[in-house]
């Protein structure tokens, strides 16, 4: 049995995923650190930008707002999110994050449990401008 070792990953070591809007960085994942129960990352959202609506059929999503003023739409209903607030998004709940402030917003997210395979873990329910022409198989799912 192989034991996973503690691993530190720097934000700058992770390629940005801008396919769904914002700058998503999946930092602690099965591929980067050998995690087996979920994954964690950071989303950086510029003023006026958004992370397109999606849902996770196998995972709950836990979100912590580090900075910025966001609104999250949960099954179409908007909710304000401020710094130092956390949010748990249940399995199968559609959600979209929008930066409604004047400064960059940063959120830390964790999803668990893992989907059986990465492509099954994330279902887009709207297209974002960044999505045009991008191959989903090459993207990190969050």
Which strand order do you get reading across the main beta sheet? 1-2-9-4-7
Q: Can you count the helices?
A: 1
Low-confidence stretches: 131-142
Average predicted confidence as pLDDT: 90
Number of strands: 10
Report the helical percentage: under 10%
Q: Measured on Cα atoms, how large is the radius of gyration?
A: 15 Å
Helix/strand structural class: mainly beta
Summarize the helix and strand pattern as letters.
Answer: EHEEEEEEEEE
- Strand proportion: 35-45%
Major sheet details: 5 strands, antiparallel
* Terminal CA distance: 28 Å
Overall geometry: globular
Q: How are the SSEs placed, and which strands pair?
A:
Layout: E1 23-28, H1 30-33, E2 39-45, E3 50-55, E4 60-67, E5 70-74, E6 77-81, E7 86-89, E8 95-99, E9 105-112, E10 123-124
Could you walk me through the main structural features you see in this protein, from its secondary elements to its overall organization?
This protein is mainly beta and 142 residues long. It contains one helix and ten strands; from the N terminus they run βαβββββββββ. Strands 1-2-9-4-7 form a five-stranded antiparallel β-sheet. The protein has a five-stranded antiparallel β-sheet with strand order 6-5-8-3-10, with no helix packed on it. Strand 5 and strand 6 form a beta hairpin. The protein starts with 22 loop residues before the first strand and ends in an 18-residue tail after the last strand. The C terminus is likely disordered.
């Amino acid at each position: 049995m192989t034991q996973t070792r503690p691993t530190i990953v720097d934000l700058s070591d992770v390629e940005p995923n801008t396919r769904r809007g914002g700058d998503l960085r999946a930092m602690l994942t099965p591929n980067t650190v050998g995690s087996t129960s979920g994954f964690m990352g950071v989303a950086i959202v510029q003023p006026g930008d958004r992370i397109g609506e999606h849902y996770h059929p196998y995972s709950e999503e836990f979100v912590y707002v580090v900075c910025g003023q966001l609104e999250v739409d949960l099954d179409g209903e908007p909710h304000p999110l401020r710094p130092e607030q956390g949010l748990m998004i249940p399995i199968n709940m559609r959600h979209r994050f929008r930066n409604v402030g004047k400064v960059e917003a940063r959120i830390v997210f964790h999803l668990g449990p893992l989907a059986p395979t990465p492509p099954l873990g994330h279902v887009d329910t709207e297209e974002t401008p960044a999505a045009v022409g991008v191959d989903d198989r090459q993207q990190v799912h969050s």
